[in-house]
């Protein structure tokens, strides 16, 4: 998957339809999440589409997240969020300005409110997970 700065640069030059396609492509590139992990316990509340997030602690103390959605554009948004936190230490995740990092994508104005309403809940869940593992 491309880096967040590369994606941000490409996104800035695209029209609305191409931005949707880019998000869909990012979602398709997500690491597959086994269906067995898509449970009520991993479901992110408050999302219009179903979104699941499953954290794992990697050797070396970094957090790795598997995530999925039943909506293609939502999966792309998930991919953007994960690019800001994936395989980082819990303390780094807690210190990360995820919202600020995603601000240049202007998702709230580019997408319908239904598509973006769950983003804060997903970020909160990731932060709660990081807080459990923080030193």
UniProtKB/TrEMBL annotation:
Domain spans labelled Fe-S metabolism associated: 13-128
A Pfam family that the UniProt record links to this protein: SufE
Cited InterPro entries: Fe-S_metab-assoc_dom (IPR003808)
Entry's transmembrane regions: none
Assigned protein family: Belongs to the SufE family.
Protein name: Fe-S metabolism protein SufE
Species of the source: Sphingomonas turrisvirgatae
Lineage of origin: Bacteria, Pseudomonadati, Pseudomonadota, Alphaproteobacteria, Sphingomonadales
């Amino acid at each position: 998957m491309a880096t967040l700065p590369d994606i941000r640069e490409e996104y800035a030059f695209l029209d609305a339809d191409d931005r949707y396609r880019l998000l869909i492509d990012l979602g398709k590139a997500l690491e597959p999440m086994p269906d067995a992990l898509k449970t009520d316990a991993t479901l992110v509340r408050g999302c219009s589409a179903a979104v699941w997030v499953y954290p794992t602690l990697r050797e070396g103390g970094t957090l790795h997240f598997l995530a999925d959605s039943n909506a293609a554009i939502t999966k792309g948004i998930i991919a953007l969020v994960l690019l800001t936190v994936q395989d980082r230490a819990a303390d780094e995740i807690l210190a990360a300005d995820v919202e600020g990092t995603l601000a240049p994508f202007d998702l709230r104005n580019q997408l319908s409110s239904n598509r973006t309403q769950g983003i804060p809940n997903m970020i909160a869940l990731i932060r709660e997970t990081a807080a459990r593992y923080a030193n």
